[in-house]
Design goal:
single chain, 138 residues, mainly alpha, rod-shaped
């Protein structure tokens, strides 16, 4: 009779150890699955972060391009206004002269006005090209 309880005890311990072994293997699989899920979550978070950063950089580039366009327009308007105002002053000054001196003075005033206009247009065009480059790069 003593043998039966000892045999039962040995069988119970063996089953318990086998169950522990299966529990340990299951636990290892669960840990591995959790690690894989965490790695996937991290990868997705990195992709999302990279996309949001790229969007923000593009938005900033577009805003900078728009600001450059607005600045170019304001600088152009200022340069044209200045050229016209300086021409008006020169024209009044030239009107006080006689003959060829007056003609030469007016010719010089027109040439300076035209050069200022040309420079303003060239500067505006360069700024617009830069803004377009920024938008394409953004």
């Amino acid at each position: 009779m003593k043998r039966l309880p000892v045999a039962a005890l040995v069988a119970a311990i063996s089953l318990g150890l086998a169950a522990c072994q299966k529990d340990a293997e299951q636990h290892a699989r669960d840990v591995q699955e959790a690690r894989q899920a965490a790695a996937e979550d991290i990868r997705e978070a990195r992709e999302d972060a990279a996309e949001r950063i790229a969007d923000a950089q593009a938005e900033r580039g577009n805003a900078e391009a728009e600001a450059l366009r607005e600045t170019a327009k304001a600088q152009y308007d200022l340069a044209i206004t200045r050229a016209e105002a300086e021409y008006d002053v020169a024209e009044e000054r030239c009107e006080a002269l006689d003959g060829e001196s007056r003609d030469a003075c007016l010719s010089q005033a027109r040439a300076e006005r035209d050069a200022a206009r040309s420079a303003a247009e060239s500067n505006r065009a360069a700024a617009i090209q830069e803004a377009e480059r920024m938008e394409r790069a953004g």
